[in-house]
Amino acid sequence: MSDKYKVLYYVNQFFGQIGGEEKAGMEPVFKNEKIGPAVGFESFLKGNGEVIGTIICGDNYFNEHKNEALSFIMKTVKEVKPDIVVTGPAFNAGRYGMACGVIAKTIVEELDIPAVTGMYIENPGVDTCKDKVIVVSTPDSAAGMRKALPVMAAITDKLMKGEELGLPEEEGYIPQGKRLTVFSDKRGSQRAVEMLIARLKGEGFKTELPMPEFDKVEPAPPIKDLSKATIALVTSGGIVPKGNPDRIQSASAQKWGKYDITALDKLEADYCTIHGGYDPVYANEKPDRIVPLDILRQYEKEGIIGKVSQYFYTTTGTGTSVGNSIKFGKEIGAELKADGVDGVILTST
Amino acid sequence: MVKEIERYGIPIVHMATIITISQSVGANRIVPTVAIPHPVGNPSLSAEGEHELRKSLVDKALKALTTEVSGITIFD
Predict the structure, then answer these.
(1) Chain B residues with CB inside 8 Å of A291's CB?
(2) Is the Cβ pair A292, B54 closer than 8 Å?
(3) Most exposed: A54, A67, A92, A305, by fewest CB within 10 Å?
C-alpha cells in the first residue's frame, strides 16, 4: 500500500483525448490511468499524491443528461474511494465549466470528499460551485494550462496535508464569499479613516469587505395583446447568411449582425451557423432549429402574433466575454426599442 | 444580452438548453429547449413531428412573454 493520497480526475472528451465536438455526446467512462491534464497535474504533487484514475464525459452529454451522468460519476467515486477529486481546468469553456462545477460540488456535498477545479473568472460554472469547491482562477484559454496546473496541485497538496489555505488572492483561487477573523494592529475606525483619506487623495485603497454585486433586471411587463405585438428573434447560436458577410467570429465574438428576414417564411440553405464548439450539422440542415422563424411566420399569417420584426439579430455565444455580451445587448436592445418591438425570443445553443 | 435588452423594458424570453447558465445570469423568462446543437428542433423526429415540437416550444415562449413574472421563472 502506498501512503500517497489518491486523486480522481475528471475531464471532458477533448482533454480526455477521445475527440472534439463530434464526441461531445459521449457517455461518461472511467479509466484507471492518468489522462490529459491529469499527467501534468500529478507531476506537480511532487510525489505526495497520485492520480488513480480519470473520468471522461462529453460536454453535451453531461449538460443534457445531468442526472444519468452524475449517477455514473457518483457510483465511480464511491467505488474508487479517492481522497480528493480534481475537475478541469475548464478555462472559459461554458459547458465544460458547468460539468466541472456541478460534479465537484455534488461530490463535496454528498460524499464529503474535497474537490478542486480551475476556471476563468467569467465561466458560468464558477457560480455553481465556488462556495463549496476551491476554484483556481485560470486564464481564459487552454494556453493557460501550465499556469493553472501547478496552482491546482499546490492547493490540492495543502488540503490533503490538512494545512489551512491562505486568502484567495495569495493562493490563486476565486473568493468563496467567506469571512474570516484576522488580527490587525490598528483598530477598525482608524483603518476606515485611512481608507477614506486615501480615497479623497485619489490614492489606491482596498476595502476589507467587498460588496456583493447584485445585477438583477426588473422583469419587463408582459405583452398584453399578442395579436398586435411585434416579435423579434435574436440568437447567440451564430446563424448568419452563407458566406458570413459581416465576418462574425466563430468564438469570442467581437460583433453582432442583423439580417432582413421580411421576405422569408423560414431559414433555408442560404443560412448556416458559424458558431464554434457545437456540431453544426443539425443547424446547417435546418437553421430554424436555432432560430424558429418558420413557426413565428406561420403565427403571423394566422394572426396569433401581430408581426415578425424586420430583422433578426445574431452573434456567437461561445467564449464571448461578459463585457462584449453587455455591449451587444445594449446595442441590439436600442435598435429593438427604436423599431417598436414588443417582445423578444432569444435562443442559445 | 437577455438582461441588457430587458433593461429597455421589452419582455424577453431566453430559450436555452443549459438553463442553469440562464438562471445564474439572471434571465427572468426561461424556456428549456431540446439540445445544445438544436435547441428548437430534433433531427430524430419526422418533419411533421419536428414542426409540432418547434411549435410547442414557440408556444411556451409566447406564453412566457404574455405572463407577468416577478423574478426568474421557468416555463416548461
Answers:
(1) 40
(2) yes
(3) A67
